[in-house]
Specification:
This protein has 103 residues and is an all-alpha fold. The chain has one domain. The chain has six helices and no strands. Helix 2 crosses helix 3, helix 4 runs antiparallel to helix 5 and helix 5 runs antiparallel to helix 6.
Length: 103
Amino acid sequence: MIINYRMLIKGYIKDRKSKDRKFSYKVFAKELGLKSRGFIANLANEKRTASTATILALARVMKLNQDETRYFVNLACYSNAENKEVKKFYEKEIIKDIKKYVG
């Protein structure tokens, strides 16, 4: 089970590149409606954080289903949380998501 949303992004990029030699950060950024390809690289390498709107755009472009999107958003919000209370909230949501998948 992936517990870092950036790992999902990296995995998606690796998978797309293996299937499409023309796929690049620039293509990905364009699909997301972003002007900077560097933003995606910096996001994947933990040098930038993403807004909720960008996280939802990533989920859309990555073609995540509703449950996967929920998990992805919860991971991102947990990672981006700036205080313990918010982090704890998203930690509980992630645990719920994992239990749903594991059964």
